[in-house]
Structure formats: C-alpha cells, structure tokens
Write a structure and sequence with these properties.
Length: about 210
C-alpha cells in the first residue's frame, strides 16, 4: 500500500495484544466492548500529540504557576452509527466533557455503498476538534461520506480513528480527504468479495451489541 502523509498506523505492543483477543470469535460481548474502548483510549492519547493548549494559572499548595490545558468545550466526538458508539467511551476517558454528535450510515448490501439516514451534531462543532470514529474502515465509503457531512457543516479540524482497516479503505479516505489525519490501530490484509475485512473480526456492531 502507498504511504500517505495523513495516515498513521500504530505499532504498539499493548494494542497488538488487545487486537489478538478482539479477533477471537470466542471473545464475548462484554470483553469485546471493553477492548474496543481500551484500544480507543490508547489511540486518543497518541492522536492528540498536536493538540493546542492554552495557559492557565494554577494555585499549588506552595505557589502560583502557569500550566497548560486543553481548552474547555474544544473537543467533540462523532461516532458513525452504530458501531462507532463502541468507541465513544474510549475518547471520553481522556476528554470526559466532550460533546457527542451522531452520523447514521448504513451499507447497501447489494451495492456496498453507504447511505446517510441521520445526522445530529453539537452546536458550535465547526469550532471544535472533531473525533470521527468507526471501528472498521473497510471500503472507506461511509468514512468519506461522514467526512463530507462534517465539512458541509463547517468542521475544519477533524481526526478520523478506526480500530481495524483494509488498504482499500485507507486509500479511499487518504485520497478523498488529504487534510484529515487518519489514525488506525491495525492494518489488515484485504477485503473479501462481500466487503468484509480479512482477517478482520467479523461485524463489529453485532459483536458490540449482541445482535447476531
């Protein structure tokens, strides 16, 4: 796969350990959900290395000191429904006051093309750093359409995070949205004829919510 300047694939031993358990078909819903959250938290720390800080005055027990904080109300999380919901708590562990919007997308089973059916975003999202999250980046269609939807609503600082990605999905997003950093914990081999990632981990939504 071609290297893209806006694509960051993690090579973290702890993530590899958790991904191995996540893939196992015998991993139950509760543990699967917890693993998605834990991996997302690790990815959030890494993806915020360039976050803008503001100086604040802090009274320690001994003196007043200038410290630096992420501005309040500057972070928003937007999961792509429904599997993206599984990543929200992982970001909230780092930014517990982040507002949450939702974009609903479904994949047409015949054409494999994404269809938007819902979009509800926090007020002022155009001024926030937006985490667009979805555990699986397969063809890239849903991610590209969700990014289009955010940009149409004025969002300028967007970060996309996925747990598992196929090369086709990364290339699609990187080419369509070269201004958006793409953070992926694990790059898989390919897509099968039905558009599922291999070796993958099955349907993330079904495994998160026990609907299969």
């Amino acid at each position: 796969m071609k290297a893209y300047k806006n694509v960051f694939i993690f090579d973290h031993p702890l993530i590899k350990h958790k991904i191995a358990i996540l893939r196992d078909k015998n991993t139950g819903m509760k543990e699967f959900r917890e693993l998605i959250e834990e991996i997302t938290t690790i990815m959030t720390y890494e993806s915020m290395r360039d976050v803008k800080l503001v100086p604040v005055q802090v009274e320690t027990p001994l003196e007043t000191t200038t410290q630096y904080k992420v501005p309040e109300e500057s972070i928003a999380i937007v999961p792509i429904l429904r599997a993206g919901l599984g990543m929200v708590n992982g970001v909230h562990k780092v930014f517990p006051t982040a507002k949450v919007g939702h974009i609903g997308m479904y994949r047409d089973e015949e054409t494999l093309q994404p269809q938007e059916y819902y979009c509800k975003l926090p007020d002022g999202i155009e001024n926030k750093t937006v985490f667009l999250v979805d555990p699986m980046l397969a063809t890239g269609g849903s991610a590209c359409d969700a990014l289009d939807a955010l940009k149409k609503r004025g969002c300028k600082n967007i970060k996309f995070m996925a747990v598992i990605a196929a090369p086709q999905g990364i290339e699609a997003v990187a080419k369509a949205h070269p201004d958006v950093p793409v953070y992926v914990s694990t790059l898989d081999r390919c897509l099968n004829e039905n558009g599922y990632i291999l070796p993958g981990l099955g349907d993330a939504g079904d495994r998160l919510f026990g609907t299969k």
